[in-house]
Amino acid sequence: MTKRARIVVTVFLGWAGGHHFIDGRTGMGLLYFFTFGLLGIGWFIDIIKALILPQETMDKQDAYRKEISEYRRNMKQLKAAERAEVMQQSMIKSNELKAQGVAHCPKCKSTSIQYVERRKKLSVGRAVVGGTLLGPLGATVGAVTSNKHKGYIKCLNCGNTYKN
């Protein structure tokens, strides 16, 4: 679809998800249709994207979406035995990586992963103790100082996030 056609469709039929239906994304089209373009916010963002993004970027996005939908279609068409074989090969690769002690993504088996760490924002227990011992200032300091960490692992290949 040309840029001009995309802009016209997005402006006039975007509230009903017309541009998503044309791109072959019926799920998003239905979502836009029943929520009136995500209450107008999604429609507005799509209009801005249609006006600003160059045609090459839109073509790349369309090609990527088509590639993903083709992959999903192919996976659905695989027979159960073939799917089981693919899953078994995936498990074999996963077990080999585990045996070697190599960290990997459970979804795509890529070894390109990153640990992302986030500190817990507030500590209620420390706030209570600090408030009891030192008053309001102690409660404030106790609340913001926490040594609990939350972390997860993110695959740099497929974007999957998971806990270790």
Give a structural overview.
The protein has 164 residues and is mainly alpha-helical. The chain folds into two domains: 72 residues, no CATH class; 60 residues, no CATH class. It is built from eight helices and three strands, in the order ααααααβααββ. It has a three-stranded antiparallel sheet with strand order 1-2-3, with no helix packed on it. The chain is flat and about 65 Å long. The model has no long low-confidence stretch (mean pLDDT 81).
Write the layout of secondary structure elements.
Blueprint: H1 3-13, H2 18-22, H3 26-39, H4 41-52, H5 55-77, H6 80-100, E1 113-119, H7 124-134, H8 136-144, E2 149-155, E3 161-162
Antiparallel strand pairs: 1-2, 2-3
Helix pairs in contact: 1-4, 3-4, 7-8
Q: H/E order of the elements?
A: HHHHHHEHHEE
Largest sheet: 3 strands, antiparallel
Radius of gyration: 24 Å
Low-confidence stretches: none
Distance between the termini: 43 Å
Number of domains: 2
**Helix and strand composition category:** mainly alpha
Number of strands: 3
Large-scale geometry: flat
Summarize the structure.
The chain has 8 helices and 3 strands; from the N terminus they run ααααααβααββ.
Key traits:
164 residues; mainly alpha; 2 domains; three-stranded antiparallel beta sheet; 65% helix; 10% strand; flat
